[in-house]
Amino acid sequence: GQNIDQPTEMTATEGAIVQINCTYQTSGFNGLFWYQQHAGEAPTFLSYNVLDGLEEKGRFSSFLSRSKGYSYLLLKELQMKDSASYLCAVREEGGGNKLTFGTGTQLKVEL
Amino acid sequence: DTEVTQTPKHLVMGMTNKKSLKCEQHMGHRAMYWYKQKAKKPPELMFVYSYEKLSINESVPSRFSPECPNSSLLNLHLHALQPEDSALYLCASSSGQGQNIQYFGAGTRLSVL
Question: Which tens digits make up the pLDDT trace of B62-98?
Fold first, then answer.
């Protein structure tokens, strides 16, 4: 089984930078995904990490440390539309591409 | 294009009804998924089809019956549901290889009365 932890809520200011952390415990790691989900809408894929290091995609970056069971999603130049839930999901080896999601971090961006 | 289309968007049904949820993708993906999501909770995997064969059933009650008629279509047949089955039902698809990223549809909001 897996245990995935994220903060429940975060608040940040428009234009600022925010880091959302995710820690996980798994028996066989095979990738970590970040999704964004606005209320009542589909999760939207943001990033994928399987090797240690930083992956950058525009205003969004994601970091992975497999030895520490740790990832973070970094959002720069925050915009009001970034207010959403951010879900960390882990894939196990031999799991048939099954994703186990963390409980999600609700981010509120304020003026 | 990473579009997964789900119909209907909303569904209200009684406990004795039979209904079906539909999911379609035209990305050539070979894996398709059903998830259930309750309010303020993460998605929970229900079923996985890989190359049109059921590969994962997460111990889902038999009142939920999946069907994969072809590689582009995925159905979820519903029968004798309970009020606690009310949720957002999400479909996803992935290529079946490489990074195998799952792309989600907008979901069907189901209410069981």
Answer: 999 999 999 999 999 999 999 999 999 999 999 988 8
| CB contact residues (below 8 A), chain A span 26-65, against chain B | 31, 33, 35, 40-45, 48, 50
Is A75:A46 a contact under the CB 8 Å cutoff? no
d(CA A104, CA A65): 19
Q: State the Cα–Cα distance between residues B70 and B101, nearest whole angstrom.
A: 20
Segment A57-104, tens digit of pLDDT: 999 999 999 999 999 999 999 999 999 999 999 998 887 889 999 999
Contact residues, chain A, for B42 at CB < 8 Å: 87, 89, 101-104
Compare all CA atoms of chain A with the CA of B106 and give the residue at the minimum distance.
A42
- State whether B41 and A45 contact (CB < 8 Å): no
* List of residues 6+ apart from A66 with CB closer than 8 A: A29, A51, A52
**CA dist., res. A70 & res. B67, Å (int):** 37
Neighbours of A67 (CB within 10 A): 6
